[in-house]
Amino acid sequence: MPRLRLGVALLVPPPVGAEVDGLRRAAGDGALGRIPPHCTLVPPVNVREDRLSDALAHLRDAGSTTRPFRVELGPVETFLPDSPVLYLAVGGDGFEALLDLRDRVFSEPLSRPVTWPFVPHVTLAEEMEARRIDASIRAFANYRAEVTFERVHLLEEGEGRVWSPIADIAFAAPAVVGRGGLELELAVSDAIDDEGRELGARDWGQWDERPLAVTARRDGRVVGTAEGWTHGGIGYLARLLVAADSRGEGIGTQLLAAFQSEAAARACSRLVVRTFSDSRAERFYRGRGWVEDARWPWVDGRVFVQLVRE
C-alpha cells in the first residue's frame, strides 16, 4: 500500500507570516519556499494512503474541541548545542491551548517516535554555523509578534521536498443543520480536502481548472502581475496589478493581452473578470473591448460588475 509523507502544523497567518519569511531569508533558510512559516505539531510521518480518511477524521475531532488562541512569537533562540537550529520561541496566553492541541493530534495515525521533547517553535533556519546563529540572535533580538491561530493544517510532502497544505480544519464545532431529520454537518475551510476532491472526481469527473499567471518585469524588478485560471473554455481573470510607480506606461495592457493570448492557447473562447462599477479598473477593461455581463449590489452602497470578452 502506498504511503503519504504527512505533517501537522499551525501555519503562521499573514501579515506575520511574511515577516517571518523575511527573517528566514535573512538567516539563509534552505527550506524557504518549500514550506510556509509554521509551528510543527506532528513532524513528518509516513501514513498509509488508505488511512488518510482516518487522519482527517482525527484532526476534525481535535479541531472541533479547540477554539482560536493567541500566542507570542519571539524572542529568537537556538537549540544549540543539541541542534544548529535558529527559531522563534512560542509563548503567551495561548501556550497551554497549543500544548493541549498537540497532545490531542499526536496519536494514531498521526504519531511517530520522537528524539526530543516537544518545544513549540517557528523555525527560521536549520544547519546554521554557530557564529551565524549568535549573530542572528543579536540581529533579531527585538523581534516579537502576536498571532492568532484559528485552524490547523495537514501538509503533504511532494516533489523537491515541497510541503503543501492538503486540508485545513477550523477551530470550531461544526454546524449541524436538519436536526431531527436528515442531519448535515457543515464545516468551513480554506480548501476542499482529499475526501471532498474524491467525491468530485467520482461523480463529476476530473476538474480541469488550471492556474494561469503572468508576471511583468523591468530590469529584473516585478512591475505587474495578472492571475487567474482557465476551465471549461473560459479564462477567469482574478486580479491584475501594476506597481504604483509604473502605471500609465501600458504594462496593464500588455499583461491583459498576454493573459488573453494564453487563455486562447488553452482553447478558451471567453474571458471573465469582476470589479467595482465606475472604477478605474472598469474603465480600463471597457476601453479594451470588455462588455458588461452582470451587476449586483455590494457593501457600502457600491456595485459589483462582471465584464466579459468573447
CATH superfamily of the largest domain: Cyclic phosphodiesterase
Straight-line distance between termini: 48 Å
What is the strand tally? Answer: 16
Number of helices: 7
Rounded Rg: 23 Å
So what's the overall shape? Answer: globular
**Major pleated sheet:** 6 strands, mixed
Please tell me the total number of domains: 2
- Biggest sheet, strands in spatial order? 11-12-13-14-16-15
Encode the helix/strand succession as letters: EHEHEEHEHEEEEEHEEEHEHEE
Written account of the structure:
- The N and C termini lie far apart (48 Å).
- With 310 residues, the chain is α+β, with helices and mostly antiparallel strands.
- Strand 3 (69-78) and strand 4 (86-91) form a beta hairpin.
- Helices cover 25% and strands 38% of the residues.
- The chain has a 6-stranded mixed β-sheet, covered by helices on one side.
- The protein has 2 domains: 3-202, Cyclic Phosphodiesterase, Chain: A, CATH 3.90.1140; 210-309, 3-Layer(aba) Sandwich (Aminopeptidase), CATH 3.40.630.30.
- The model has no long low-confidence stretch (mean pLDDT 91).
Give the gist of this structure:
By secondary structure, the chain is α+β, with helices and mostly antiparallel strands. The protein is 25% helix and 38% strand.
SSE diagram, text form:
Layout: E1 3-11, H1 16-27, E2 38-48, H2 52-64, E3 69-78, E4 86-91, H3 95-105, E5 121-125, H4 130-139, E6 145-149, E7 151-157, E8 163-170, E9 175-177, E10 184-186, H5 194-204, E11 210-218, E12 221-231, E13 234-242, H6 251-265, E14 270-276, H7 280-286, E15 291-297, E16 303-309
Parallel strand pairs: 13-14
Antiparallel strand pairs: 1-2, 1-7, 3-4, 3-6, 4-5, 7-8, 9-10, 11-12, 12-13, 14-16, 15-16
